[in-house]
Structures are given as structure tokens and as C-alpha cells.
Specification:
Layout lengths: L1 E6 L2 E4 L4 E9 L1 E12 L5 E8 L4 E3 L7 E6 L4 E6 L8 E11 L6 E4 L3 E6 L1
Parallel strand pairs: 2-11
Antiparallel strand pairs: 1-3, 3-8, 4-5, 4-9, 5-6, 7-8, 9-10, 9-11
Length: about 120
């Protein structure tokens, strides 16, 4: 069984910072990439940032220069440092891992349960 658990969400004022963590656990064989997505009420879930095992990153235009994704491969954990937060960053943030379990030969997407980030103006 593979689990991804997010933490670090909360309420912050505009201009503030938060750091999200996503820990992958269970019978994991290999993690190719980890990413953060967000979904605001009534809107689609969209990519925020992603990082490969080798450290290559990709960001949504709306967060470039403000958010930084990183990962600790030894801990199977990804982080999202969010600075200069804006009210429009308010959403549920989900972690996704593209990984292979020890019981599987294929790679699949696994999702966390989400963590709420609310930015007040």
C-alpha cells in the first residue's frame, strides 16, 4: 500500500509564506516525479509545480518566482515553499507522485488527500 500525506497548509495573510510537505510511504520501489496541484472551489485541479528525481522542475506561470519545489529522495518527500502569497493562491493543494510500488511493474499516479491553503487579503 502506498500513501502520500500532505501537511503544512493553513491560513496566512497576503504577502506571507507557507511550506507544504508531502511524504510518500509504503511499499515504494521507485519515484519518478512528485508534484503539487491545487484546486479552488468550482475550478479544475491545476499543476502548480513538479520535480523529477533528478531535480528538474516545472512551474505554473502564476507561481514562478514565488514558489519553490524541492525534494528529499532519501525521505521520499517533496516540499513546496510558498512566498508572497496572494488571495488567489487560496485552494486545496494536492500532492501527486508518479511512482512504482514493489508489487507492480508499471508506474502510476498516486494522490494525497489534500491540504487547505487560505490566503486572506
Amino acid at each position: 500500500q502506498v500513501q502520500l500525506v500532505e501537511s503544512g497548509g493553513g491560513l496566512v495573510q497576503a504577502g506571507g509564506s507557507l511550506r507544504l510537505s508531502c511524504a510518500a510511504s509504503g511499499s515504494i520501489s521507485s519515484i519518478v516525479a512528485m508534484g503539487w496541484y491545487r484546486q479552488a472551489p468550482g475550478k479544475q485541479r491545476l499543476l502548480v509545480a513538479e520535480i523529477t528525481r533528478g531535480g528538474s522542475t516545472n512551474y505554473a506561470d502564476s507561481v514562478k518566482g514565488r514558489f519553490t519545489i524541492s525534494r528529499d529522495n532519501a525521505k521520499n518527500t517533496a516540499y513546496l515553499q510558498m512566498n508572497s502569497l496572494k488571495p488567489e493562491d487560496t485552494a486545496v493543494y494536492y500532492c501527486k507522485g508518479l511512482l512504482r510500488s514493489v508489487a507492480d511493474s508499471a508506474f502510476h499516479d498516486y494522490w494525497g488527500q489534500g491540504t487547505q491553503v487560505t490566503v486572506s487579503s
